[in-house]
Amino acid sequence: MALRIFETDPDAMPKNAFSDDTVGRFHGGKSVDGIPVPLPEWRVTTGDRDVADAISQLMGGTPEETDSTSENFIEIMTERDKVQVVLSGPDAIASDLKLWNGSALIHHCDGVEFLSPDTDRGKACGCPALMEDRKAAAKAKRGPSPSISILFRIAEDYDLGLFRLQTGSWKLAEVLHEIENALNKVGSEALCVLELELVEYTTKKGRDVSYRKPVIRVLKSWSDAIADPAH
């Protein structure tokens, strides 16, 4: 399914953000006055003070009580753009394509077939086959964008619990199949690097562009990492 994928706000905080089996979320940006702002280091949110304190010890930053969507949570603006994490396998990654109109989901597919509503599930969604065409349609608000969810544990504190990264990154969508193939090759829990990688370039018109993109690099099996104290 990774080859079919196609942004909701990647840093949106749904009201049930911590009601699942995760203890916190990683974000590559935040919303300021309703405008998404990218960040150079990971931002972590949690509803658990002990988790917040642990993240602060591991990644720097000071836990701050905040309020979003009428729900209190704790935010840590960390000092790290890179962290080693453990993924259970390719099943730790879920991806699809979504187009929203306000709070209403008006298009939900995998790039080939509709995933919802039930009345349309399995029908052809009509999305272009090429990634560039999908991006163009999404930019024009005529097509859906990636909705990628990644579940992981922090290697430095494995027992702290599961965290989630929700992102709409096209760059990650483009290589998601490669990551899943690498995880399949490991065949078990895998030690990975989760990074906000800096991208800089100059356009043909001479404009300097700089942004951060989420990157996952699969290193080796977690069991091998545990056996090697140098991991």
Q: What best-fitting shape do the alpha-carbon axes yield?
A: globular
Question: Could you give the order of the helices and strands?
Answer: EEHEEEEEEHEEHEEH
Kindly state the number of beta strands: 12
What kind of sheet is the major sheet? 12 strands, mixed
> How much strand?
35-45%
Radius of gyration: 18 Å
The span between the termini is 31 Å
What would you call the structural class?
A: alpha+beta
**Count of separate DSSP helical elements:** 4
Helix share bin:
10-25%
Q: Could you name the ranges where pLDDT drops below 50 across 5 or more consecutive residues?
A: 1-19
Walkthrough of the structure:
By secondary structure, this protein is an alpha+beta fold. The protein is built from 4 helices and 12 strands; from the N terminus they run E-E-H-E-E-E-E-E-E-H-E-E-H-E-E-H.
